[in-house]
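In the laboratory, one determines a bound structure by crystallizing the protein with its ligand and collecting diffraction data. In a computational setting the workflow is compressed into a single prediction: the sequence and the ligand go in, and a structural description comes out. We illustrate the idea with iron/sulfur cluster.
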Amino acid sequence: MNSLLERKTDHTDTAIVDIHNRTFKKLRISLTSACNFSCKYCVSSKNMKVERSNYVAPQQILHWVQSIQRVTPLDAVRLTGGEPSLYRDLPELIKRLKEAGIPQVGMTTNGSLLNVQAGQLAAAGLDSVNISLDAVNEQEYKRMGGRRYQQVQSSLQTALEAGLNVKINATILQNINDNQIIPLLELAMRHNIIIRFLELMPMGYLFGSKDELLVSADDILKIISNKYSFTALPREKSSTSNYYKLSGGSVFGIIGNHSTPFCRDCDRLRLDTKGNVYGCLSNEKGIALDSDKTRDALQLAMEQKQIDRFSGSSLSMRYIGG
Ligand code: SF4
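The predicted complex, in structure-token form:
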């Protein structure tokens, strides 16, 4: 049982802080459970059925965000899915979030529509994008469940030219795309952007499965060290990633939920398309947000947090946005 402390803060009533001094600062919003890809680590090849996602209007999402803000000030909102770029009112939502005083609005996307949307989203106020790109080789990319390879490749440059802060996320699976680690790193170096390699997070159909697909942080560092030398950088508080600087100056990261868990200072809260909040990715039980009882909901959400490490979840990433 993760017990709570109540602490007076400078401008709100009382923020919700647990005994590990964790509080909510970053909100991840799943805008839709629909997706136009079928990534191996998210969708089982046996069940490719895509459910229709319910649509939530920007003003409803803003209402939920503002009820959360009244209880705990937010530093950042990250838009996720499914695939958030399929959400038809994306520019309007981003504009409203910025007008509501959210300092940083980012998006995690498969990049399939970014080459056409980047300019409009940046103009609406989007600050950053994390593009999921799991291979440089087109065949490997398709094997990982990716589509629209050329569009995704061109979206990297388009997003940079639109002035967005761009990062690449690459989930590495054993004997599937672990031969892409160096090509992906070199692609990021060519674009002068940061790439983060992710250890597999056993969610949805992979929950409870053996670690056959896991490529650990040490494995990834070993593969990179065979060609490049690098030094570890200090970890930023509440960061999911550990970063390393290559001798040439480029930086890469590893999100090692298995090897280097990051629960102890986790400040993330999640919101789904039905208005449920989740204090932890390892807990598939959503807590309904009722604007009169938002504080109660956030206290329950904080109690969901793991103490030590991610323990997996039967809930698919597409409903809670990873
Ligand atoms: S498992 Fe839960 S507590 Fe740990 S980092 Fe993920 S969301 Fe935070």
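The domain at 4-13+23-320 is CATH 3.20.20.70 (TIM Barrel). Keep in mind that any predicted model is a hypothesis to be tested, not a measurement.
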